[in-house]
Amino acid sequence: MDKAEEVEYDLDEQDHAWLELVNKQRQEEGMGAVSYDDLEWIIDLLEKLWFDLDIVKADPAGPISTEDVPCDVCNDAECDNTNAIVFCDGCNLAVHQDCYGVPYIPEGQWLCRRCMLAPGMPVSCIFCPNTGGAFKQTTTNKWAHLLCALWIPEVGIQNHVYMEPIEVSTMIPRSRWKLVCSICKVKRGACIQCHKTTCFTAFHVTCARRSGLSMTNRTLDPNAIRAFCRRHSPMVSFTCF
Ligand SMILES: [Zn+2]
Ligand SMILES: [Zn+2]
Ligand SMILES: [Zn+2]
Ligand SMILES: [Zn+2]
Ligand SMILES: [Zn+2]
After folding, report:
1. Are 236 and 184 members of one domain?
2. Chain centroid to CA 43: how far?
3. CA of 44 to the centre of ligand 4 (A)
4. Which of these, 140, 145, 136, lies nearest to 205 by C-alpha position?
5. Do both 194 and 86 map to the same domain?
6. Are residues 32 and 99 both part of a single domain?
7. In the chain, pLDDT over 70 holds for what percent of residues?
8. I need a labelling partner for 43 at 20 to 30 A (CA). Which of 4, 29, 168, 183 fits?
């Protein structure tokens, strides 16, 4: 086989320098020198083998795009093989398998609940005035953000594998429905309040997320659901004092 014909790799200065070092060593050990052509052929072969590997071919844009888009539920972009970020083919929603309850990624397309059950129809969250995001149905046949449901202490999820339906119980105090969001100023749905006990600042969960208020990572510690208003945000006080 004529090696020179098929080789697409050309040695650069660094390769030359490295080869000279190797050959010097080989000479000292009584071995023959490796030729430039041999090295070019080997690197070329390795590059072609690497290119043929399935992991590279499968989805060249995959790891890059998921790294940049955070999960709509936990706001984290990190993922692994057992808890990947899946994208809805209808609305491009990005969610972790565990966060949205997708135990198996289906072959072909995947649709979030909203795109599957109410395609093209506007749905609104019973807890906040914001549209878009990870929706699930409630036990009352309405819609709510999974994010809102997870952050309002009295709201539960019936099936934690599928993360649905959202259980709207009578446990939610009436006062919660009366709070006015300090961010969007809309008195609709149910707000949460600043974790500082002396502070009563209220906000919708989605408003807090969108305006970048300090919120603990619920996925890391489900019991530590703490959100702070801008004044009491741990990060802000750190930079102030
Ligand atoms: Zn997540
Ligand atoms: Zn969708
Ligand atoms: Zn909501
Ligand atoms: Zn709001
Ligand atoms: Zn506060």
Report:
1. yes
2. 36
3. 58
4. 145
5. yes
6. no
7. 85
8. 29
